[in-house]
Specification:
With 125 residues, the chain is an alpha/beta fold. 41% of the residues lie in helices and 10% in strands. Helix 1 packs across helix 3.
């Protein structure tokens, strides 16, 4: 089962994004941390983890709508997790970043061109 803090974070994300779609979201990069509990929630389709499943389904919908092209999702796994542990779908079909090994590459991808196009922004609350 997902830890309470992870579930609250997912609920916060659902409230901030437009319901039913991620296409109109102003986020240019979306980093998804695939912890073992997150992976288990998606794979088991546990109804108690509705917010996690909802976000995963929205990301999958966007991925397939764009002809299986990943434009902004950045999956991150920790070094003790293998890419084969990820749920089937967009997480396995895209470049996966290992934390902390690929932190430099992840930051470069997230912030590349931010000085040129002013589109990449770090959002804080």
């Amino acid at each position: 089962m997902i830890a309470a803090n992870e579930q609250r974070a997912s609920l916060w994300l659902c409230a901030r994004w437009n319901p039913g779609t991620l296409h109109n979201t102003r986020a240019y990069q979306i980093v998804v941390s695939f912890t073992p509990t997150h992976i288990e929630a998606v794979k088991s389709r546990n109804p108690a983890c509705r917010s996690v499943l909802y976000m995963h389904d929205l990301m999958s919908q966007e991925f397939f709508t764009l002809n299986s092209t990943n434009k902004r999702f950045r999956p991150v796994i920790f070094n003790d997790t293998q890419p084969s542990d990820l749920p089937v779908g967009w997480p396995r079909s895209t470049l996966v970043y290992h934390f902390p090994t690929n932190m430099g590459a992840l930051c470069a991808k997230i912030f590349k061109g931010s000085d040129l196009d002013n589109k990449s922004k770090m959002v804080t609350t």
